């Protein structure tokens, strides 16, 4: 997150980026992968040249690195919030790349996806067609004693996506289309938010277990009907309590949406959760209040290519139809 | 970092003051929580999805890979 906000937004980094092919990924892709694929060997080999070599047995590694297609690490490091240091590494890496013979910096031939690519659950996964595709924003609210070194401080923002199929999304609309019609949003759809999103975006990203959901309700009410526009308001509550830990999250939810009956899709959607999060022992790593206010907002997803990622916890999705 | 400092100052000026969420303060809370354009500057870069996609293109274009690796995709959940 710090890298996203401080480094990858830095003008000097952005000025240089076209001289590289920027790629983003996570170690979890490789943790259980077969070791004999070319992709695995290239990434593992490069990361073994970093300061994370001792922890590569568990694929604990992070940072920004300049790597040749042939797998040679040229520069980089775990400088997550220092743009000037990253710029120096970019310059160093580029210089080394250009000095390297072509046959040394490139693979002998183009990699073959059938043979060389590490299969991963979210490879080539796409959002459901005509589904409800949301962007999630999680941000701490101002709190006494909250330092700027604490990622719960309001200056930090976390992003993710929520995906619902068109059929799943229909439960966000009361069955009867008339002003005043009220209905609970299907529990499975609400549980996707409660288990995998609400109060989750604190390191180490602990999602909730079913038995920890003490309250998760969301009611939809139609407040306006025009020819092809149904205006909906949402109200709800959520409360989760960690089993065996002191982790707690609770919030009030309000939201609004516009649903188009002709296409059975949403043209507008907002769901806001305002509440508090209390850290459990696994999360409390910084000084500062154990309990802090937090806001989460779900809106229709952005159109930027970087918004099209699969949800972080997509592997845990269950049907909400 | 200067942009961050300015954004932080603006954020704190607009901060809702700990009230329970109601329709009266909904817009204020929403605008405070929502991501700001300056916080999406990193999206000016088309980050290829995963090392593989970066590798294929870097091999074809003879360019170095600028690889951003983080626990939980660095573009989002982390």
Task: Please give a structural write-up.
The complex is a heterodimer of chains A (321) and B (78). Chain A has 321 residues and is an alpha+beta fold. The two termini of chain A are 33 Å apart. With 78 residues, chain B is mainly α. The chains are: A alpha+beta (321), B mainly alpha (78). Chains A and B meet through helix 1, strand 1, helix 4, strand 2 and helix 5 of A and helix 1, helix 2, strand 1, helix 3 and strand 2 of B. Strand 2 of chain A pairs antiparallel with strand 2 of chain B, so a sheet runs across the interface.
What's the gist of this structure?
The complex is a heterodimer of chains A (321) and B (78). With 321 residues, chain A is α+β, with helices and mostly antiparallel strands. Chain A contains nine helices and eleven strands.
Main features:
A: 321 residues; alpha+beta; eight-stranded antiparallel beta sheet; two-stranded antiparallel sheet; 20% helix; 31% strand; B: 78 residues; mainly alpha; 3 helices
